[in-house]
Design brief:
The structure holds two protein chains of two kinds. By secondary structure, chain A is mostly beta strands. Chain A has three helices and 23 strands. Chain A has two domains: about 150 residues, Cupredoxins -  blue copper proteins (Immunoglobulin-like), CATH 2.60.40; about 140 residues, Cupredoxins -  blue copper proteins (Immunoglobulin-like, Sandwich), CATH 2.60.40. In chain B, strands 4-9-8-6-11-12 form a six-stranded mixed sheet, with helices on one face. Chain B has a four-stranded mixed sheet with strand order 3-2-5-7, with no helix packed on it. In chain B, strands 20-19-17-45 form a four-stranded antiparallel sheet, with no helix packed on it. Chain B has six helices and 45 strands.
Amino acid sequence: MIKQSRNKRLLMLYFGMLFGLISFSCLLSSPAWAMREGETHVITLKASNLPSGQLAYQMASHKIKSKYGRIRDVTSRYVQRPIVPGPTIIMTEGDVAEITLEHDIEGSTLPVSLHVHGVHYKIKDDGTVKAMNGIIDSAAFPGKPYTYRWEAASGTAGTWPYHDHTFGNPMLGAEDKGLYGAVIVNPSSMEVTALIDGEIVDVDLDDVKREFVLWMHETTFWGAEINHILDGQQIPLWSNPTIGARLGELIRFHVIGIGTAFHTFHLHGHRWLEHGTSSVVDTVNIGPISRQTFVVEAGEGVGPGAWHYHCHVLQHMQSGMMGKFRVLE
Amino acid sequence: MQIKIRSRSVLLCLAAFLVGCQQGGPKPKAEDIILSKPGLMPSAILEITDEPGHWFKDPIDGDSLVVIKPGQAVMLKMTAETRTEHTITSLLWPSNASGFPVDQEKPSSVSVTTAFDQPGLYVFTCKVHPYVFGAVVVDDPKTEGLDIGSEMQLVTGAKVPTTSDIAKKLLRTYFVATTPALWRDYSKPTWNVALPDIPLNLAGNTISLSALSFSAPNKAFNPAVPGIGEVWVDTQFEIIDGKTKAGSATQVDATTWSIKKKVKGVDINMNHPHNMWTDSQYKNIYQTEWFDKRLTTFDRDTGKVLSTVDVGESPSHVLTRPTDDSLYVAINAGESVVKLSAGERPSVLSAINTGPHTSPHGHYITENGKLMVTPNALASSVSVVNLDSEEVVEIPTGGVIPIAVWGNPEGTRAYVANLLGTPPALLSSMSVIDLDKKIKITDINLAEDYNPISGEVTGEAYGLLPIQTPVSPDGKYVVTANTLSASITIVDTASNKVVKSLPCEPGCHGAHFGLKKGGGYYAYVASKFANDLIIIDMDKLEIAGRVVLADRNDSTISANNGMGGQGVLPLPLAEKSRLQRTRGLLGSGKLTPEVERWLKQATTSQIGGI
C-alpha cells in the first residue's frame, strides 16, 4: 500500500515535471516572450522601364535564410514584372537584408540606386553617388549590380520608404518617376497597438489578414496589397485602386507620401490611432516621405459598404485622388 | 487598459486546425480572397517640361503625342523641370468621350492620370500658357488609319466635324507648334511644312497626314521708311549655350533694321522672357520670366542684368504707371498684380488681388495712370483697378481665356482679346469695355467672315485665337495678333468692325506700336513659331516689312535662332502721354544722347501737339 502510494507519488511527480517542462517550452516558444532569432533576406531587385516610360523596381528573387541555414524561397509572393510602387520588403526587428540591385533600365547608363529610410546601414549602402557620400558610388550600373546591407535593428520597427537617389539627378534620383517602394519592419513582439471595438488593444500581427500600402503621389494614390490569407502574396493595385476586405477582418494600412505635395488621408467610416499616440483620428496629414501605419477592423461599427478613401485637399480631390475601401460580408 | 486579443486568435487557429484535420477542406481560391480591384496603370506618360515645342513630352521618344488603345490610361505629369505652375486642361476631345473634359480649376504642380474610352484625338493644354500642347490619339486597332474621330468638341463647347476646316487647322497647328523643325525659319528660302505619310481616320475616311503639308516662300524685307528708335522682341524660344532655360530679348535698330544685341541672361539662367517694359528714361528694361517666378531688370544700353526679384508664379506682363514709374507685374498663375518700386533693383511693395481664379495675363494701364485693367484668363472677366485706392471691380465678359487688353488714349475704352472666343455664338472675339461705366459694351466678332466648316473666307474678318491687341496711339485702330489663323486683324474703333486682315506667321502672338519716321505709326508683330518681326504701316494698313530676328553670326545660339517672338517693346514709347513725359526730360542730362536724338525725331502729331 505504502509502495503503491509511493509509486503513485512518483508518477504524479513525473507527470508534474513533464507538464512543467512542456509549459516552460511553450513559454519559450511563444513569440511574445521569446528572444527571436533574426533571419537574413537575400534579395535581388531590378530597376527597369515600364512601357509608359515610368521607371519601376521588380522583385527578381527573395529568399529568407534562418540562422540555422534553412532557406525559404518566397519569390512567388511577388509578380514577376516591374511595378509601381515597388515590391514591399517585409522584415522583422533583428533581421538583415542583403539586397542586390540590378540595372535593367533600357537605353540608359546612368547609375540607379536604393536609398532606404529607417533601418541601419553603413555609409557604403547609402544609395547615393560618391560625390555625395564621399566613399563610393553606392549604385548599380549596367552589368554591374550593387549589393546593399540593411539591418532591421532593435528600434527600427515601422514602415519606411526606399527609393532611388542617383538616376538622372544625383541630388534627387528618380523616385518621382516610379522608383520607390516600402520596407515594413515588424516589431519583434509581433504586436502593434490598435483601436478595436472602441478600446486600445495590442493586436497580434499574425491576425492581420491584409495590408494595404498606399502611396500618395501628387494627385494619385499608388497601391499594393499584401494578402496574408495567401501567405503574404503581394498584389499590385496601381493608381487610385479599390481595396477590399471582409467585414471584421483586421486590416493594416501603410500610407506614405512621396513627391512635393502635402496631403490629408481620410478613410470614411473608420477611426484609428494616430501613429505612436492614443489619439483617435479618421484623417491624418501626409507629407513627402512621411507615413502613417495603423490597423482597423474592416467595417467596425458601420458594417459593409464601399467606403470612400481620399486626400482631403480640395484640389487633390478635384483631380481624382480617391478610391474605395470595399468591405464585404 | 490594453487587452490582449491573442487568446481569440489562438482559439481560432486551434479551431481552424481541428476543422482542417477533420474536413481536409480545399484551399481557398485566390479570386475569392483578393477582393481589391487594381486602378489604372498608365500605358503612356506626357510630362510637362519647359522645353520649347516639347511642353508635353513623352519620356520614351520625346514627342508631344502618344498613341494608346481604347480603355488605356495616360499620366499627364507635372515635373520639377518647369519652374512654375500650370493647369492640365482638355482643349479638344471626341464629343462622345466619357470623363471629359479634364480641367484643373487653377494652376498647380499636380499631375493627372486619366483613362480614354473612345477612339479619337484628345489635345491638352495649359490655360496659363495656352500653347503648351500635348496630344493623345486613342487608336482602335480594328480600324484603318490612326483614329481622329468623327466629331471633336472644343473647350468652348463648340462641336465640329473632324473633316472641317477648323479641325484641320487645329491639327496642323498642333503639329507645327510641337515640332521645332517645322517652325518658319527666314534664313531658309522656303518654309516647308512636310508632314509624314501617316494614315488618319477621319469619320471613317482615311486620309494621309501629309495632305496637310504645304510650303511657302520666305521673303524678308525692310520697310522703305525707317522707324524711330528701336524695337525689343522677346525671342522666348532661343536655346543658348551656357544656360538650361530658353529665351533672350532681341534688340532691333528701327532705322537700319539690324539686330543690335541679344540679352540672354546666361548668368541668371533667364527663363522664357515673355514681355518687357521700361521706365520714363528708357534706362532699365523690366523683363518677365513667364515660365518662372522672376522679374529681371537689365540695362537697356549695355544689356547687363541688374537684378532679379521673385514676384510670383508665371509673371506674364509688366507695365509702369506713367505718373511715377512704379511697376505692375501680372501674376499669371496667381490672382494678383504685384506692385514694385522703380529702379535698377525693384522691390515688391504690395499685391493687388484681382479676384478668385483670375490669372491675369496681359494688362493695361491708362495713359493718365489712374486705372489698370487685367484680362483674367481663368475667370472669363476683366478687373478694373483704381490705382490710387487699389479698389478692384471685376466685370464678367463671357470670353474664354481673356488674354490681353489695351485701351484708347483717353482711357475710356478697353479692348480684350478672348483667346477662345465668346461661346456659344462667337468662335473668335474681342470684348469692348466701357471703363467709365465699368460694363461690357459689345463683343466684336473677329472671324465673322470665316466659315469654320468649309474654310471659306469672304471678307476681312478672319482672326482665330487672338492674343495681343494694342490700340494705336491715335486711338483709331486695334491691331490683334491671331495665333491659329496666323493673321493680323485691324479693328476700326469707330465702327468696332474688322477693316483689315493681314497675313502673319505661325504662332502670331505679340504686338505693339512704335513711331514711324516722318509721322505715323508702325505696328510691330512677333510670332512664336517664326523668326521674323512683321512691320505694319498704320497709314496704309499694309505690311511694310519683315525683319529677321535670327543672328546667324552668334554661335552661342544653338537652336531656335530668333524664334519664340512674344513680347514687343518699341522705343520710344509711342503712347502720347508717355512720350510727352520722357520728352519732358530732354536736356536734363537724364537721357542718353541716343534717346534724346530719337525724341527729337518725333513729329508734332506723334507727340500730341506739344
